[in-house]
Each structure stands twice: as structure tokens, then as C-alpha cells.
Amino acid sequence: MEPRLILIQLLVKLGVAAAVSSALVRSVEFKSLLFREERTLRQKIYLVLWFGLPIATGVWIRFSAQSFLAGDLTFETALLLGVIGGRWAGVLGGVLLGLPALLHGEWATMPFGILCGFIAGQLRTLALDKEEIWSFSPFIDLSVYRWIRRNLPRPRLFDWQFMFFVTIVALRFVHAELTHFFPRTTFSLESPIPWVEAVIYAASATVIGIELKIFNSVRTQIKLEEQERLLLQARMEALQNQINPHFLFNTLNSVSSLVRFDPDTARELIFKLATILRRLLSSSEAFVPLREEVDFIDNYLDIEVVRFGQDKLRVIKELGSDSLEVMVPSMLLQPLVENSIKHGLSSKIDGGSIYLRSRIADSMLVIEVEDDGVGMTAAQSHGGWQGTGIGMANVSERLKVLYGDTAVMTIESHEGKGTLVRIRLPLLQSAGTVPEAFYEERSSTRR
């Protein structure tokens, strides 16, 4: 074949490798098989089928369309399956990829593919750090350059990436010799011109490198999204943990103020506090049904009623039955109710009322905490969350971390008339896995 045609075939070959790899990593199932360190035999078979069937189709096309030789990536794919999936995956890949050639009389393709897959799988076991597999460079000069840099200060007897490059070249040489001595038993692009032959060798290493680079870029993106999810979860937990000591501090202050002149009330307050702490310690869920939050608020309000007296603190609940099973962030309502009591009602001589409402409207959960207290001045209203205390600012930040822009928290306050805090949340109905599922939903939305 003319050098010009060989070079065109090699360019098309690189394009085919990139196209197949890019198409495969769009599949969630393929990514779950590809990006795991340990696989069962069933998972290895699935990985081989996912990766091998498109390449085996390319081999069939080579026989039906004699001019399209670039679709045959048997050699490179057998090596890739071995180095990614291990010896069994490499051997099974060699069998699958060699089957179309065997049926067309090229009997040496299958045993050579099995040999390539086995050797690559064996080489995988020698990699102390599996990251070296994914960071293999398609640029040969850079691979050699990195090898020299790593070995200049402290020579190493074994460098995995360089060894993998040498393995590709050595097996490619064996393939060329096999084609030379047994021309109709296997297929390989060959040229008597040295520089063209060198380009053919380089193309094989580049195909493997390009596919690994495409896979690794997706793998890195998944890792970054996972790290972002963990960071958001850690940030949310830190904010949630700030609420509990804040609430405990305020309640203990109330106990200390009662213990001298009203010990019986202080004892009752401590009993109620123990009930609340028992609930906090027994639950570590980030999300809970609204019903549980309301039960918790009932216990909290029992403490506040003891402090203020039955006549000075009245609680009116208007809760939609369909809203009580919706999942909400844990400890969401307590800071809102505490804010109403502390900033709205505590300074009123005759006390007042707190209205707790919930309903589902426009596919959103709407929660309202309203008081008929002293309200906020214009200066306090313009001060935002800072004017309403640590707890409210904390709730606002938690909602931002958990929901992004899909949750809305607003304050409507009129001096001398009271304050209304309204929260609108997306509907979450599943328990247990809500945080992980919701973070994944936010990540997929950004993509």
C-alpha cells in the first residue's frame, strides 16, 4: 500500500478510537464497569462485551469493505482490556476480537490477541500505583522524557509507564513479524519504508494513549463531582452541628435563670431538654420527614411555654396532611421558632402567638413561621439575616448548600405587627438516601 494511503488509514484509525471511546463513556453502566479497581468475572465479561463488540464490528467491516482498514483495532483493544480489566478481561477480549478474523480464515489473530490481553493483564498486576495506568501518555517522547526525569535523581529498576510503552512496541514487532512470515493468518498495516513503519508503531501507542486519556478525563470529572458532593455534605453537617450547641446554650441559660427562684420549673425544663437531646443523639440523618420536625418543635415549645407561661405563649398549627411526609433538613424549624420567640415575643409584656403552617403549592413545600410580636425595624430588615441572629443565618446558609437556588427563604416583617418567615423547598419524598440522591441531581443539572 502507498505511504499516503497508510497515513490516511492511520489518521482515520485515531479518529475511530477516539469516537468509540467517547461514545462508550456516555453510558453510565459502562462507566460503572470501567472505573472500579476490583471486578467479578461477570463484570469483566460485561466490560469485554461493551468494549469488544464495537471493535469486533469494525473487524467485520474490514472484510466487507476492503478499503476501510482503520476500523480494525484488535491489537490495541486487546491490550487496553488487559491493562484495564486484568488478565481474564484481556484473554476474553482476545477471543471476542479474534472471532471475526478466525471465521474469515485469519486463524493467528485470536491466539495473538489472547497473548496480548494476557501480557497486558499481567503488566497491570505489576503496577504498584494504578494511577500510572490512567496517566499513560499517547505522546511517546513525553513518556520517555518522564521516565528520564523520574530516574535521574534516583534510578528505579522498574518504571511501569515506560515498561508498558516497551510492551506495546515489542508486541507490535511480533505482530509485524507474524504478518511477514504468515501473511494470510492475521492482519496488520505494514510498509517497507522505515519512517512509515515507525509511524505505524507510534499510531498503536497513540491509539491506546488517546483512549486512556478520554477515559481518564471522564474519571477525573466523576472524582471531582464526588469530592464536591462530599464537600457540600461536610459543609452542611458543620452548619447543622452549629445549631445544636446554639440551641443547647440558650436552653441552659433559661434553666440557670430559673434554678434559684423556681426549682420545680427548672426541673421540668431539664426533663424536657433531656427528651430533646435524646432525639438529637439518636438521629444523625441530614433529612427527616416534616412530621418529625414538628414533633421536635412540640418538645421545644414545651420548654418555651414553661419559661413564658401558658398565657403568654400560644402556638397555632395549620399543617397540611400531605406535607407532613415531605423530607426537610433536620433542625430546620427550631431556629425559626426560636427567632420568633426571642426577637418577636420576648419583649412583649402580654406575650403573643406563633403560627406554624405547611402546605404543598405549585409542586413545592411551603413552610411558614409567623408571630404577632414586635416585628423588625426598617434598619433590621435591611440588615438581612444578620439582624435575626446566628440561627436564622445558619438556616439560610444550610438551604443554600443543600438546595442551591431551588430553595427560597424570605422574611416579611412590620414593626409592631409581627414577622413572617416563609420557606419554599422542592418536594423530596424518599427517606434514607435523600442527601446523596439530591447531590447527584444537582451535579447532573449542572452538566
Account of the protein in words:
The chain has 447 residues and is an alpha+beta fold. The protein has two domains: 224 residues, no CATH class; 188 residues, Heat Shock Protein 90 (2-Layer Sandwich). 64% of the residues lie in helices and 11% in strands. It is built from 16 helices and seven strands. The strands form two sheets. A five-stranded mixed sheet has the order 2-4-5-7-6, with helices on one face. The protein has a two-stranded antiparallel ribbon with strand order 1-3. A hairpin with a 3-residue loop joins strand 6 and strand 7. The longest helix is centred in the middle third of the chain and has 65 residues. It is elongated and about 105 Å long. The two termini are 45 Å apart.
Order of helices and strands: HHHHHHHHHHHEHEEHEEHHEEH
Structural class: alpha+beta
Q: Strand portion, in percent?
A: 5-15%
Question: What strand order characterises the main sheet?
Answer: 2-4-5-7-6
* Annotation field: number of helices: 16
- Report helical residue fraction: 55-70%
Radius of gyration using CA atoms only = 34 Å
Mean pLDDT: 81
Assembly type of the shown chains?
single chain
Total strands: 7
Terminal-residue CA separation = 45 Å
Number of discrete domains = 2
Low-pLDDT regions: 382-387, 431-447
> What is the molecular shape?
elongated
Largest sheet: 5 strands, mixed
